[in-house]
Amino acid sequence: MSNQTSVTDFLLLGVKDTWELNPLLFAVFLTMYLVSVVGNGAILMIVILDPRLHSPMYFFLGNLACLDICFSTVTVPKMLENLLSTSKAISFLGCITQLHFFHFLGSTEALLLAVMAFDRFVAICKPLHYPVIMNHQVCVQMVVTIWAIPFIHAFLHSVMTSRLNFCGSNQIHHFCDVKPLLELACGNTELNLWLLSNVTGTIAIGLFFLTFLSYFYIITYLFLKTRSCSMLHKALSTCASHFMVVTIFYAPVLFIYIRPTSGSSLDQDWIIAIMYTVVTPALNPLIYTLRNKDVRGALNRKIRRWL
To answer: What is the C-alpha separation between 158 and 107, in angstroms, rounded?
Structure first.
């Protein structure tokens, strides 16, 4: 170990051999980032300003919009800078900070999607008890918990990763995440791997199953209890937007974290990372505005008023 030098910064490489495509990638990623920020910002503004959307469902939707803006901002601006720069360096502190907020916001979104699925379950399966179960105080407490627990979880990852010794190679092939950083670490990383696979993995898989369990009960309830086709269609339409967001969010996340490292491709990991850091936050506002009648109507009313 005596001939190894300590790493003070990292290089975020991205996809190899794409220098000639960098201007095109920059334009595409910048467009999607702007769509994410403007679209989610519009949803957040509408949820706050329109009294008709002051309900638990849209309270959680506003939090999701805020999360998507922050989530894409953690990685995309640095990615855009690297596409036009010959120096792709990020400081050690900057890398740990990016890791922290990436895990913090990603875990928060997974928890929020589970709570939103539960909200739909109560609204559809227990409509008479909905105002009591999902009252304003409970919703606020849920949101505080949703933001607080992932922050502590991400802080553990950040502290444990920052205490590792990094030597030799400093090249990361997408952005600062726990898995690529552990591959560059010198010394014992068993505790870090245990936290990643057992704690983070259990949380992700647990929230995934809780979310889809809520939809399983919703669908079962609707087909067994609902006799009216119009009521069935209305209830399913209410859940369709959120279900699409859940599917888009979990598909790349489960693929990249559950798949064995030995079977992974660096370029493939980078593309999947782009999916859930760039594409998903940009698609969410489009899904909610195109499929959600209330949000679409509120946006139309605000636009007409401003014009």
So the answer is: 14
Burial letters for 264-288: b for 16+ Cβ neighbours within 10 Å, e otherwise? eebeebbebbbbbbbbbbbbbbebb
Question: Helix, strand, coil shares of the chain as percentages rounded to 5?
Answer: 80, 5, 15
- Beta-bridge partners for 185: 166
What is d(CA 272, CA 64) in angstroms, rounded to the nearest whole number?
21
Token pair 């809780």: residue: 210
Q: Angle between the 56-84 and 280-291 helix axes, to the nearest 10 degrees?
A: 140
pLDDT digits (tens, 9 = 90+) for 246-265: 888 877 766 665 555 544 55
Measured distance CA(46)–CA(302) in Å, rounded: 8
Question: Residues 6 or more apart from 46 whose CB is under 8 A from it?
Answer: 53, 295, 298, 299, 302
Three-state DSSP at 165 gives: strand
Structure tokens given for 177: 């995440």
The answer to whether the beta carbons of residues 166 and 186 sit under 8 Å apart is yes
CB 107 within 8 A of CB 154: yes
pLDDT in tens, 19-68: 677 788 889 899 999 999 999 998 899 889 888 888 998 999 999 999 99
Q: What is the CB neighbour count within 10 angstroms for residue 48?
A: 12
Q: The tokens of 16 are what?
A: 């190899």
What is the distance between the alpha carbons of residues 64 and 74, in angstroms, rounded to a whole number? 15
What tokens appear for 40 in the block? 């989610």
